[in-house]
Amino acid sequence: MQGVFTGFVTIAVVIGVGALLAHLRIVDLGAQQVLSRIAFFVASPALMVITLGRADVHDVLSANLVASGAAVVVCVALYAALARWVWHRGLGEGTIGALCASYVNAGNLGIPVASYVLGDAALVAPTLLLQLLVLQPLALAFLDADARGRPTSVWQVVGRPFKNPLTLGSLAGLGLSLTGWTLPPIVRDPLTLIGNMAVPCMLIAYGIALRLGPGLGRAGSVGELATTSTIKLLVQPAVAWFVGAVVLGVDGAALLAIVVTSALPTAQNIFVHATRYDRGTTLARDTILITTVGAVPVILLAAAVLG
């Protein structure tokens, strides 16, 4: 429990540095975008190559992937039913709402939390790959279909994940782990150095965004906002725990990793998708803010109970 608390304090301090830099006008949203791009396109892929390359891929992907996937399916189905029969949302709005209720911030916060709270950045890989290879391509296909009025081609859905640097870095790391290959020092050392930038870049950029970004506004439906936030913060980690502990018999640190990754807040890129397609933008923004704040006590509680 003390290690978890120390990890969160470390993360909070670095986020606070970003917020302070923005408050003092040393940096602006332009700097936040630059840091985010460096982390997304360069540092995070390098980090995943190194961390996954030296991880036991069977331990990383087995129970964690099953439990995380089951939690996502339950949350998406629960929100979809309410969106269809209670709020009568269309395809685009319903897709954004489903992402708000199930798509975790596995990159910007998941990697730091896995690194400093769980002690291994590779533990976020199953959730990251599930989202990048399955959930996000399907969601974008639905959003494209809603925007264009016609379905997206199969090749576009299949090919979309392989244009994502995080996906490519994760797959490269998995390939190294599966084959047992070791990168030569001339390749491994620069990748390690670059990968070490990922976490501080993400956290400082996030702090800048918190200080300079928009505050909490009114969602189109307070009930819908409460529902997406509750599903994300409580239902998703609860289902992940049930599948992991009761169905699969996982315990200890492995179970804590499953629950913590499922309790991560809604990913910030959901707001990017909502803005791009002009669907559910306020709901996305407000769910991200509420779950980001609410995830901390949920994860600390999980650590106290399971740690």
TrEMBL record:
It is found in: Membrane. It holds the Pfam family Mem_trans. The keyword Transport applies. Signal peptide: none annotated. The keyword Hydrolase does not apply. It is a multi-pass membrane protein. Keywords: Cell membrane, Membrane, Transmembrane, Transmembrane helix, Transport. The chain crosses the membrane at residues 6-27, 34-55, 61-82, 94-117, 123-145, 166-187, 193-212, 239-267, 287-306. This is AEC family transporter. It comes from Pedococcus aerophilus.
